[in-house]
Amino acid sequence: MIMRNSELIMVVLLLAVLSLCKTNSLACNEREKHALLRFKQYLTDPTNRLSSWSLTEGCCGWAGVRCDNVSGRVFELHLGNPEDSGTSTLVGKLNPALLELEHLKFLNLSLNDFRGTPIPSFLGSMSSLTYLNLWGASFGGLVPHQLGNLSSLRQLYLGGNPGLYVDNLSWISLLSSLESLDLGWIDLHRDIHWLDYVSQLSSLSELYLPHCQLNNMISSQGYVNFTLSLTVLSLPSNNFSHNMPNWLFNLSSLLALDLSDNSLLGQIPSTISNLHNLNYLNLSVNMLVGRIPESLGQLKHLEILSIFSNFLCGPIIPYQLGNLSFLSYLDLHRNKLNGPIPSQLGNLSSLSYLYLHSNELNGTLPRNLGLLSNLVALRIGNNSIEGTISEVNFAKLSKLKYLDMHLTSVVFNVSHNWIPPFQLQHILLRGCKLGPKFPAWLQTQRFLQTLTLHNVGIVGTVPKWFWMWASNIQTIYLGYNQISGNLSQVLINSTNFDADSNRFVGQLPHLSPNVVLFSIANNSLSGRISSFLCQKMNERSKLRILDLSNNALSGELGHCLMRWQSLTHLNLGSNNLSGEMSESIGSLLSLKALHLHNNSFSGGIPLSLNNCTVLGLIDFAENKLTGNIPSWIGERTHLMVIRLRSNEFFGDIPQQICRLSSLIILDLANNRLSGSIPRCLNNVSAMATIPSAIDDKFSTLKFSIYLGYQGYYLGYREDLILVVKGRKSTYNNILPLVRIVDLSCNNLSGGIPIEILSLFGLQSLNLSRNHLMGRIPEKIGGMKYLESLDLSNNHLSGEIPRSITNLTFLSYLDLSYNNLSGRIPSSTQLQSFNALEFIGNPELCGAPLLKNCTENEGPQGDENVEGSERSWFYIGAATGFTVGFWGVSGALLCKRAWRHAYFKFLNNINDRVYVVTALKWSWVCYHFRRYHMISKLKL
């Protein structure tokens, strides 16, 4: 019996082998073979994917061709690009020869390049097709309606072709057999009835419509016909600016629902519990409000729940979510959730990713979170969480790779010899309390990529093991501690290294060519800058950000700057550097920001700087630079900041500066500039527009480091010391929103050009301490965003324009020491300023000055207005007195009872006053006599 079974098995295997041999030896249909060769002629095949397609071989053995085992007819074409890299991409257009493949059921041309050509309408005649995949194949134009003729089609993938659009989607309802549909990135906004057509597909199981510019999910018929067969509904990144429609919660067969990155409004309805089969729910990046409904806890099969970046409020989550035993991914970050983290989260034994950062959570970290043995990422940063964390909180977290508690008040209290159960890749603990000792447990972490210990209270010398251990960590942030140590013999190998605001001493460390960001500002490093710049490297440096500001570095720049060709941001400000600026600066062709302020540089601005064509920021303030401001500066059209204050520049302000349409800060104060203020400043369009966080031209100066985990970025931001409202302030985060012109303390002459009034977005204008003459422009009140205006110490004359009262944001004003005259315009704001802001103008009068105005002072228009107001005051007072007097007296004359009550009341008051007065006088006399007697006894 056993032998007979073995023989039977051998026969079956032999038949299978013969079947395979028959498949390979099938002689394909000659007509179809020649059709495929014609199809190939219209394609470019750079990697010879179709090299087997030749007359000498049967087409059933060709790459990507599948034939029927019996008839030998071609029924499948697998020509999708097997790689996303594009190296195997077929390029060209589709040839109608495909129509001769009458039995073709499967056609995959995805991820190729058809150069924006339209999808050919002849595909609608290939009636045998059940599978059509043109995803990401670079088609463009109108999607042909003829595709609606493919009545046997079960799977249709046209997505990933952003050049396609649909004018009318009614043809889709004809595909009665369709089970899976992907139209992602196709423009569907022209058809407002898309939902009615798609919901008629009775067999539809999966629907993917991301990035389709859809505007609504509301059916024009008032109801939606989706059957219970729908298991996947993916509609992310559209424009649904309404509440979630009720029909969604009737789709009880749904396994996955993605409505992320829309503008959905309202609350998450409690009826979401009707979707009891859901294992994936994504409602992130919307405008949802209210609390997370308790009914979410009834979705027992849920594995992934993402609702980040909304406006959800109230307690973090209902305790019922602790029942979701299959939940592996929970993301609620960037909402307004408050209260403590519920301990029920410790029951989610399958949880791998927990993102609760950037909310308003408080309280302590539940200890039982340390029992989540599958947890890979724990992000609770940027909350008000506090309390002490010990080894217990990490007891079972052996799989933890990502720990984020930054910007919390958590205190780490672990033993010095603690060996954590995890091997972390990313540690973000900025603002936590780890110090004062350097945490020894860090050296147990062998696979660390990111270490951020900003402001964690570490005090003392870096341990000996640190620099060798840190050499393989990609990103290190140690800023704002009190870490000390000598860096003279240290080699920095990390790609990004930031140790600002510590107590490091010695010379600058050596950098490996791999370093991209090196910032060690505000320490006590010394030595000659040239020793650092001229250090030897085995290969070309990749350094882009170099910030050595606020140290004690000395010497001249020299010519070694040309070795740092990759630099985009260079900050050497507030050191003891001297000599002329090296011409080698001009070799830094990628330079975007250059800070050399507060040093002792002399000479002029090097001509070679003109080579830095993408320069966006120049800060040479507080040096000893001299000469003319170069005219070529107007050719650097990316410039947003020019800060040259407190030098010895002379000559005119170059007219070419008006070409800098992106300029937002122009600070030329405290030089020896002469001539007039350029009238063309109105061409600086960035100052003529209202500052907006959306239109952030300053973003080109930002440098961000993407950590690859949930969109977390570290980076480098520019900052500037600006003199605004009479005091120095450091600007960093809001710097892109600042608009300033400061030409004070020069020798400028002429008048204030009216063209400057076109700079509507200007927030601070300082023209003080010059030799300006003429009147203050009448329409200065049109600069409505002005917060600071200083025109003091000039020779301005005439009256203060009445329109200045329109400057409602004005909080600093100085018009002192000019020749202004007349009445100070009346407004609550102007009269709130100190008189010192107006002194030195002998002919000026009115509040807040003590000098009163006579009748003939002040603007004629004001006299008329005030005369009219005075007349109406007297008229109103007389009328009020007459009405009030006769209103009371008339009532007393007409009503006898009121008259008697009134005079009786007066008599009572008179008696009370007399009695009180008599008693008080008696008390005073008594005490006076007593005091007089005591005085005599003492004598």
Protein described:
This protein is an alpha/beta fold. The protein contains eight helices and 61 strands. The chain has a 30-stranded mixed beta sheet, with no helix packed on it. A twelve-stranded parallel beta sheet has the order 36-38-40-42-44-46-48-54-56-58-60-61. A six-stranded parallel beta sheet has the order 15-17-19-21-23-25, with no helix packed on it. The radius of gyration is 40 Å and the shape is globular. The relative contact order is 0.03. The model is unreliable at 11-24, 858-874 and 926-939 (pLDDT under 50).
Fold topology:
Layout: H1 2-24, H2 30-41, E1 43-44, E2 65-67, E3 74-78, E4 91-92, E5 106-108, E6 131-133, E7 140-142, E8 155-157, E9 163-165, E10 180-182, H3 194-198, E11 206-208, E12 232-234, E13 256-258, E14 280-282, E15 289-290, E16 304-306, E17 311-315, E18 329-331, E19 336-340, E20 353-355, E21 360-363, E22 377-379, E23 384-389, E24 402-404, E25 409-412, E26 426-428, E27 450-452, E28 459-461, H4 466-470, E29 475-477, E30 482-486, E31 491-492, E32 496-498, E33 503-505, E34 510-511, E35 517-519, E36 526-528, H5 529-533, E37 545-547, E38 552-555, E39 569-571, E40 576-580, E41 593-595, E42 600-603, E43 617-619, E44 624-627, E45 641-643, E46 648-652, E47 665-667, E48 672-676, E49 703-706, E50 713-716, E51 720-724, E52 727-731, E53 740-742, E54 747-750, E55 764-766, E56 771-775, E57 788-790, E58 795-799, E59 812-814, E60 819-823, H6 828-831, E61 843-845, H7 860-894, H8 896-938
Parallel strand pairs: 3-5, 5-6, 6-8, 7-9, 8-10, 10-11, 11-12, 12-13, 13-14, 14-16, 15-17, 16-18, 17-19, 18-20, 19-21, 20-22, 21-23, 22-24, 23-25, 24-26, 26-27, 27-29, 28-30, 29-32, 30-33, 31-34, 32-35, 35-37, 36-38, 37-39, 38-40, 39-41, 40-42, 41-43, 42-44, 43-45, 44-46, 45-47, 46-48, 47-53, ...
Antiparallel strand pairs: 1-4, 2-3, 49-50, 51-52
